[in-house]
Amino acid sequence: MPSKKNLKILVVDDQKDMQKIVQSSLKMLGYINIVTANNGRAALDVLDNQNIDLIICDWNMPVMTGIEFLEKAREQDKYKGTPFLMLTTEGFKENVTLAIEKGVTDYLVKPLVPAVLEKKLNEILGHQDEHSIQKNPLLQ
Questions:
Q1: Is the whole model's pTM more than 0.85, yes or no?
Q2: Are 40 and 47 in contact (CB under 8 A)?
């Protein structure tokens, strides 16, 4: 897995404000190579044209939902094992179960808390940063 600076992350959300929040949180955590898409269809275009190392995706979007995008991404050999974090307001057990069945790596319910995002990313990517925001007492 590339280092944080080289890791290419795709953020998929139809809400521009949410895209900005996720991007800001990722940058605060040291991830700088971030691309965005407004829906699953646009995200598929990104997957076709770029090498993506991690996907963070909303569930409810027009054109193509996050779960539909997850299914399409997992159909591609190149993205079968790519870490996929579903970031959504859909916290119902049935939705979590469906996402797991479709191949999601992990699930995070909004609102986004940077320390929780960091914990999830560390679990997904299997690394810890000794300068973690989780260790910053001002953010506890």
A1: yes
A2: no
